[in-house]
């Protein structure tokens, strides 16, 4: 995977990037408001990249969970995937890293919101949900869940570097990284720091309607421009399952063919669809294990198929 060229905001089209020897000196830099900063700043690769590579050497599969659109259930899908992977094989170790700095939700969804992070000589210790499932999030570091995080890009980037290089995960089979919507600072930081850490790829989450698919197309373009392997797309909330009669209905009509058709058009793997079951949603909202609480839910059956496809895609990378 190629590294991402870091560029300040409002740069000209041919900006050489802050790490280039030509930063602030190239013809394209003339008149740029960042010219003085770039010409005087340190050059060369971020030392954090090597630290992340070293820390994640014992992590077999490193997967970004992405979505161009907010509200598609990306964090919930991340939790579903992690729970299902952990339940599938007790001998495998699974972890979730919550990179959504301003909206951390994994502590609540995984039922460990009241836990605290401890630090040792080897780094931060993640919070354990089960014997083989752990999680790390900035949510554990806040004094109150109502605290707003009002940070600019550099501070967010620094926290992501700390998460990737200072958490003592131990040996992991899967590390799922839950990201915020879009293609902004957090995504560029994660991709840059993971550029030498053998990132396995990305799973992209969407809902069936065109307003979500439009933004997901941008996310697919982001992955291609940054050389991220797209493991596949998951269509969330494909159907609504009535908790009383189990009848299925459409919440988000797939008027343009939904995620599967989009994947066919863009030559991207389609991992499968997840229905919307209020019983599973309630479990996630209350931090309970849906696999134990509602084992007969159609979500479980759909999730099993998606997990099988995801494992297959990851194995093909080795």
From TrEMBL:
Positions bound to [4Fe-4S] cluster 1: 15, 29, 32, 38
The record's free-text note on cofactor binding: Binds 4 [4Fe-4S] clusters per heterotetramer. Contains two stable clusters in the N-termini of NUBP1 and two labile, bridging clusters between subunits of the NUBP1-NUBP2 heterotetramer.
Keyword vocabulary terms for this entry: 4Fe-4S, ATP-binding, Cytoplasm, Iron, Iron-sulfur, Metal-binding, Nucleotide-binding
GO molecular function: 4 iron, 4 sulfur cluster binding; ATP binding; ATP-dependent FeS chaperone activity; metal ion binding
The keyword DNA-binding is annotated on this UniProt entry: no
Chief localisation class: cytoplasm
Alphabetized InterPro entries for the sequence: Mrp-like_CS (IPR000808), Mrp/NBP35_ATP-bd (IPR019591), NUBP1/Nbp35 (IPR028601), P-loop_NTPase (IPR027417), YlxH/NBP35 (IPR033756)
Superkingdom of origin organism: Eukaryota
Cellular component aspect of the GO annotation: cytosol; nucleus
Region annotated Disordered, chain positions: 1-26
The keyword Membrane is assigned to this record: no
Gene3D superfamilies listed in its UniProt record: P-loop containing nucleotide triphosphate hydrolases
Subunit structure, as described in the record: Heterotetramer of 2 NUBP1 and 2 NUBP2 chains.
Family as reported in the entry's similarity comment: Belongs to the Mrp/NBP35 ATP-binding proteins family. NUBP1/NBP35 subfamily.
Protein name as it appears in the record: Cytosolic Fe-S cluster assembly factor NUBP1 homolog
Gene: LOC115889900
């Amino acid at each position: 995977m190629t590294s991402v060229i870091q560029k300040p905001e409002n740069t000209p089209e041919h900006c050489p990037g802050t790490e280039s020897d030509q930063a602030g000196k190239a013809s394209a830099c003339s008149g740029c408001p960042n010219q003085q900063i770039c010409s005087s700043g340190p050059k060369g690769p971020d030392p954090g990249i090597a630290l992340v590579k070293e820390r994640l050497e014992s992590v077999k599969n490193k997967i970004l969970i992405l979505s161009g659109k907010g509200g598609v259930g990306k964090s919930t899908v991340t939790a579903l995937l992690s729970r299902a992977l952990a339940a599938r094989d007790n001998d495998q170790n699974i972890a979730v890293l919550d990179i959504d700095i301003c909206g951390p939700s994994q502590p609540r969804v995984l039922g460990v919101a009241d836990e605290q992070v401890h630090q040792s000589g080897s780094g931060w210790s993640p919070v354990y949900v089960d014997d083989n499932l752990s999680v790390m999030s900035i949510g554990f570091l806040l004094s109150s869940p109502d605290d707003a995080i009002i940070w600019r890009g550099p501070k967010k980037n620094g926290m992501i570097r700390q998460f990737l290089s200072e958490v003592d995960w131990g040996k992991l089979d899967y590390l799922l990284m839950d990201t915020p919507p879009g293609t902004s600072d957090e995504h560029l930081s994660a991709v840059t720091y993971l550029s030498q850490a053998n990132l396995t790829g990305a799973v992209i989450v969407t809902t069936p309607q065109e307003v979500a698919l439009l933004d997901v197309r941008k996310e697919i373009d982001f992955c291609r421009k940054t050389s991220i392997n797209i493991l596949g797309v998951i269509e969330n909330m494909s159907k609504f399952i009535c908790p009383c009669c189990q009848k299925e209905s459409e919440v988000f009509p797939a008027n343009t063919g939904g995620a599967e058709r989009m994947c066919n058009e863009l030559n991207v793997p389609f991992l499968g669809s997840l229905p919307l079951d209020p019983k599973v949603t309630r479990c996630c909202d209350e931090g309970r294990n849906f696999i134990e609480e509602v084992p007969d839910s159609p979500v479980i059956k759909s999730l099993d198929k998606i997990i099988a496809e995801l494992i297959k895609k990851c194995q093909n990378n080795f």
